[in-house]
Amino acid sequence: MRVASWNINGVKARIETVLTWLKETDPDVACFQEIKSVDENFPRTPFEDLGYNLETHGQKGFNGVAILSKRPFEEVNRRLPGDETDEQARYIEAVIAGNSQPIRVGCLYLPNGNPIDTEKFPYKLSWMERLNTHAQKQLENEEAFLLVGDYNVIPDPIDARNPEKWTNDALFQPESRRAFRSLLNLGFTEAVRATQDAPETYSFWDYQAGAWQRNNGIRIDHLLLSPEATDIMTSVGIDKFVRGREKPSDHVPVWVELAD
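Predicted structure:
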Protein backbone atom coordinates (compact mmCIF):
# COMPACT_ATOMS: atom_id res chain seq x y z
CA MET A 1 0.00 0.00 0.00
CA ARG A 2 1.45 3.34 -1.05
CA VAL A 3 0.48 6.38 1.02
CA ALA A 4 1.41 9.77 -0.44
CA SER A 5 1.16 13.33 0.86
CA TRP A 6 1.20 16.52 -1.20
CA ASN A 7 0.48 20.18 -0.57
CA ILE A 8 -1.09 20.88 -3.95
CA ASN A 9 -1.55 24.65 -3.43
CA GLY A 10 -5.07 24.83 -4.84
CA VAL A 11 -7.00 21.94 -6.36
CA LYS A 12 -8.58 23.98 -9.14
CA ALA A 13 -5.32 25.65 -10.15
CA ARG A 14 -3.38 22.39 -10.05
CA ILE A 15 -5.93 19.77 -11.09
CA GLU A 16 -4.32 18.66 -14.36
CA THR A 17 -0.90 18.40 -12.72
CA VAL A 18 -2.36 16.39 -9.85
CA LEU A 19 -4.36 14.05 -12.10
CA THR A 20 -1.30 13.37 -14.26
CA TRP A 21 0.74 12.48 -11.18
CA LEU A 22 -2.01 10.17 -9.86
CA LYS A 23 -2.14 8.32 -13.18
CA GLU A 24 1.65 7.96 -13.23
CA THR A 25 2.27 6.85 -9.66
CA ASP A 26 -1.08 5.26 -8.70
CA PRO A 27 -0.92 5.67 -4.91
CA ASP A 28 -3.46 3.70 -2.87
CA VAL A 29 -3.93 6.69 -0.57
CA ALA A 30 -3.24 10.35 -1.40
CA CYS A 31 -3.40 13.08 1.23
CA PHE A 32 -3.68 16.64 -0.07
CA GLN A 33 -3.14 19.90 1.78
CA GLU A 34 -4.10 23.45 0.83
CA ILE A 35 -6.95 22.36 -1.41
CA LYS A 36 -8.37 25.91 -1.12
CA SER A 37 -11.94 24.79 -1.74
CA VAL A 38 -15.11 24.33 0.27
CA ASP A 39 -16.31 20.74 0.36
CA GLU A 40 -19.27 21.21 -1.97
CA ASN A 41 -17.12 22.84 -4.68
CA PHE A 42 -14.29 20.30 -4.67
CA PRO A 43 -14.03 18.76 -8.19
CA ARG A 44 -14.74 15.20 -7.12
CA THR A 45 -15.60 13.58 -10.45
CA PRO A 46 -12.13 13.48 -12.07
CA PHE A 47 -10.72 11.78 -8.96
CA GLU A 48 -13.62 9.36 -8.61
CA ASP A 49 -13.18 8.45 -12.28
CA LEU A 50 -9.67 7.25 -11.34
CA GLY A 51 -11.18 4.92 -8.74
CA TYR A 52 -10.71 7.03 -5.62
CA ASN A 53 -13.04 7.41 -2.68
CA LEU A 54 -12.75 10.98 -1.44
CA GLU A 55 -13.23 12.85 1.83
CA THR A 56 -12.50 16.55 2.30
CA HIS A 57 -12.38 19.14 5.05
CA GLY A 58 -12.43 22.37 3.11
CA GLN A 59 -12.45 26.09 3.60
CA LYS A 60 -13.06 28.88 1.10
CA GLY A 61 -9.96 30.40 -0.43
CA PHE A 62 -7.25 28.87 1.76
CA ASN A 63 -6.28 25.89 3.93
CA GLY A 64 -8.29 22.68 3.42
CA VAL A 65 -7.26 19.02 3.45
CA ALA A 66 -8.42 15.88 1.65
CA ILE A 67 -7.85 12.13 1.70
CA LEU A 68 -8.27 10.00 -1.43
CA SER A 69 -8.29 6.22 -1.15
CA LYS A 70 -8.75 3.35 -3.57
CA ARG A 71 -9.82 1.28 -0.58
CA PRO A 72 -12.97 1.83 1.48
CA PHE A 73 -13.05 4.28 4.36
CA GLU A 74 -14.05 2.63 7.62
CA GLU A 75 -14.06 5.87 9.66
CA VAL A 76 -13.54 9.58 8.93
CA ASN A 77 -12.99 12.40 11.44
CA ARG A 78 -12.58 16.09 10.65
CA ARG A 79 -10.87 18.77 12.76
CA LEU A 80 -8.06 18.42 15.25
CA PRO A 81 -9.49 17.94 18.76
CA GLY A 82 -8.73 20.34 21.58
CA ASP A 83 -10.21 23.68 20.52
CA GLU A 84 -13.84 23.91 19.45
CA THR A 85 -13.37 27.57 18.50
CA ASP A 86 -10.74 26.82 15.83
CA GLU A 87 -12.44 27.20 12.45
CA GLN A 88 -9.40 26.61 10.26
CA ALA A 89 -9.63 23.47 8.10
CA ARG A 90 -6.27 21.84 8.75
CA TYR A 91 -6.85 18.21 9.77
CA ILE A 92 -8.70 15.14 8.54
CA GLU A 93 -8.21 11.56 9.71
CA ALA A 94 -9.45 8.29 8.24
CA VAL A 95 -9.29 4.58 8.92
CA ILE A 96 -8.72 2.80 5.61
CA ALA A 97 -9.31 -0.86 4.89
CA GLY A 98 -6.27 -3.03 4.19
CA ASN A 99 -5.78 -6.62 3.09
CA SER A 100 -4.59 -7.85 6.48
CA GLN A 101 -5.23 -4.85 8.73
CA PRO A 102 -6.64 -1.31 8.46
CA ILE A 103 -4.41 1.73 8.65
CA ARG A 104 -5.22 5.07 10.26
CA VAL A 105 -4.05 8.16 8.36
CA GLY A 106 -4.04 11.72 9.67
CA CYS A 107 -3.61 14.37 6.98
CA LEU A 108 -2.50 17.75 8.32
CA TYR A 109 -1.66 21.24 7.18
CA LEU A 110 0.16 22.72 10.14
CA PRO A 111 0.00 26.53 10.57
CA ASN A 112 2.83 28.52 9.05
CA GLY A 113 3.22 30.82 12.05
CA ASN A 114 4.64 33.91 10.36
CA PRO A 115 5.28 36.64 11.25
CA ILE A 116 6.61 35.37 14.57
CA ASP A 117 5.84 38.63 16.39
CA THR A 118 2.10 38.25 15.72
CA GLU A 119 -0.61 35.97 17.10
CA LYS A 120 0.11 33.53 14.26
CA PHE A 121 3.17 32.05 15.97
CA PRO A 122 1.46 31.23 19.30
CA TYR A 123 -1.39 29.71 17.25
CA LYS A 124 1.13 27.48 15.48
CA LEU A 125 2.63 26.29 18.76
CA SER A 126 -0.79 25.76 20.33
CA TRP A 127 -1.87 23.73 17.30
CA MET A 128 1.26 21.59 17.60
CA GLU A 129 0.52 21.01 21.28
CA ARG A 130 -2.99 19.84 20.38
CA LEU A 131 -1.52 17.58 17.70
CA ASN A 132 0.87 16.07 20.24
CA THR A 133 -1.99 15.35 22.65
CA HIS A 134 -4.10 13.76 19.91
CA ALA A 135 -1.21 11.73 18.53
CA GLN A 136 -0.31 10.40 21.97
CA LYS A 137 -3.90 9.25 22.47
CA GLN A 138 -4.02 7.55 19.08
CA LEU A 139 -0.75 5.73 19.70
CA GLU A 140 -2.40 3.99 22.63
CA ASN A 141 -4.49 2.04 20.09
CA GLU A 142 -1.32 0.26 18.93
CA GLU A 143 -2.35 0.31 15.27
CA ALA A 144 -0.64 1.30 12.03
CA PHE A 145 -1.02 5.08 12.24
CA LEU A 146 0.48 7.68 9.92
CA LEU A 147 0.56 11.44 10.49
CA VAL A 148 1.43 12.97 7.13
CA GLY A 149 1.37 16.40 5.59
CA ASP A 150 2.84 19.86 5.37
CA TYR A 151 4.26 20.43 8.85
CA ASN A 152 5.72 23.86 8.07
CA VAL A 153 8.74 22.85 10.17
CA ILE A 154 12.37 22.56 9.05
CA PRO A 155 13.58 19.95 11.54
CA ASP A 156 17.35 20.41 11.20
CA PRO A 157 19.88 22.61 9.38
CA ILE A 158 20.45 19.80 6.85
CA ASP A 159 16.83 20.27 5.77
CA ALA A 160 17.48 23.71 4.24
CA ARG A 161 19.89 24.74 1.49
CA ASN A 162 20.64 27.96 3.37
CA PRO A 163 19.57 27.44 7.00
CA GLU A 164 21.03 30.78 8.11
CA LYS A 165 18.37 32.55 6.03
CA TRP A 166 15.57 30.93 8.05
CA THR A 167 16.66 31.95 11.55
CA ASN A 168 13.88 34.54 11.87
CA ASP A 169 11.22 32.38 10.26
CA ALA A 170 8.57 30.44 12.20
CA LEU A 171 9.45 27.27 10.28
CA PHE A 172 12.91 27.16 11.87
CA GLN A 173 12.33 28.61 15.31
CA PRO A 174 13.64 26.54 18.26
CA GLU A 175 10.09 26.27 19.62
CA SER A 176 8.76 24.85 16.33
CA ARG A 177 11.59 22.35 16.02
CA ARG A 178 11.25 21.35 19.67
CA ALA A 179 7.53 20.70 19.21
CA PHE A 180 8.29 18.54 16.17
CA ARG A 181 10.88 16.54 18.13
CA SER A 182 8.29 16.06 20.88
CA LEU A 183 6.12 14.26 18.34
CA LEU A 184 9.00 12.00 17.37
CA ASN A 185 9.72 11.33 21.03
CA LEU A 186 6.23 9.87 21.41
CA GLY A 187 7.47 6.96 19.32
CA PHE A 188 6.94 8.06 15.72
CA THR A 189 9.46 7.36 12.98
CA GLU A 190 10.17 10.18 10.53
CA ALA A 191 10.17 8.07 7.37
CA VAL A 192 12.40 10.12 5.07
CA ARG A 193 15.26 10.57 7.52
CA ALA A 194 14.90 6.98 8.74
CA THR A 195 15.76 5.78 5.24
CA GLN A 196 18.13 8.44 3.90
CA ASP A 197 20.47 11.06 5.29
CA ALA A 198 21.50 12.76 2.05
CA PRO A 199 21.83 16.55 2.06
CA GLU A 200 19.78 18.60 -0.38
CA THR A 201 16.75 16.41 0.21
CA TYR A 202 13.91 18.90 -0.10
CA SER A 203 10.14 18.96 -0.62
CA PHE A 204 9.53 22.70 -1.16
CA TRP A 205 11.01 25.35 -3.44
CA ASP A 206 9.63 28.88 -3.43
CA TYR A 207 8.31 30.37 -6.65
CA GLN A 208 10.55 33.41 -6.19
CA ALA A 209 14.21 34.15 -6.96
CA GLY A 210 14.79 31.03 -9.05
CA ALA A 211 14.65 28.78 -6.00
CA TRP A 212 13.83 25.66 -8.03
CA GLN A 213 16.51 26.30 -10.65
CA ARG A 214 19.10 26.88 -7.91
CA ASN A 215 17.83 23.99 -5.76
CA ASN A 216 17.32 26.46 -2.94
CA GLY A 217 14.85 24.24 -1.13
CA ILE A 218 13.67 23.15 2.29
CA ARG A 219 12.13 19.96 3.65
CA ILE A 220 8.86 20.65 5.46
CA ASP A 221 6.59 17.81 4.26
CA HIS A 222 6.90 14.83 6.58
CA LEU A 223 5.64 11.29 7.07
CA LEU A 224 5.46 10.21 10.72
CA LEU A 225 4.78 6.52 11.35
CA SER A 226 3.73 4.73 14.51
CA PRO A 227 5.83 1.71 15.54
CA GLU A 228 3.22 -0.59 13.99
CA ALA A 229 3.39 1.30 10.69
CA THR A 230 7.19 1.45 10.82
CA ASP A 231 7.31 -2.34 11.11
CA ILE A 232 5.67 -2.67 7.68
CA MET A 233 7.46 0.23 5.94
CA THR A 234 9.29 -1.02 2.84
CA SER A 235 10.31 2.12 0.93
CA VAL A 236 10.09 5.91 0.99
CA GLY A 237 10.41 8.51 -1.75
CA ILE A 238 10.03 12.14 -2.83
CA ASP A 239 8.60 12.81 -6.30
CA LYS A 240 10.83 15.79 -7.02
CA PHE A 241 10.20 15.56 -10.75
CA VAL A 242 6.75 17.16 -10.57
CA ARG A 243 8.23 20.50 -9.45
CA GLY A 244 9.69 21.04 -12.91
CA ARG A 245 6.38 20.71 -14.70
CA GLU A 246 4.01 23.37 -15.97
CA LYS A 247 1.88 25.05 -13.27
CA PRO A 248 3.54 23.18 -10.40
CA SER A 249 2.82 23.44 -6.71
CA ASP A 250 5.72 24.82 -4.71
CA HIS A 251 5.69 21.48 -2.83
CA VAL A 252 6.23 17.96 -4.20
CA PRO A 253 4.71 14.63 -3.10
CA VAL A 254 6.36 12.47 -0.45
CA TRP A 255 5.33 8.85 -0.08
CA VAL A 256 5.82 5.64 1.86
CA GLU A 257 5.20 2.05 0.80
CA LEU A 258 3.74 -0.31 3.41
CA ALA A 259 3.67 -4.11 3.22
CA ASP A 260 0.07 -5.30 3.37
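Summary: The first strand starts at residue 2 and ends at 7.
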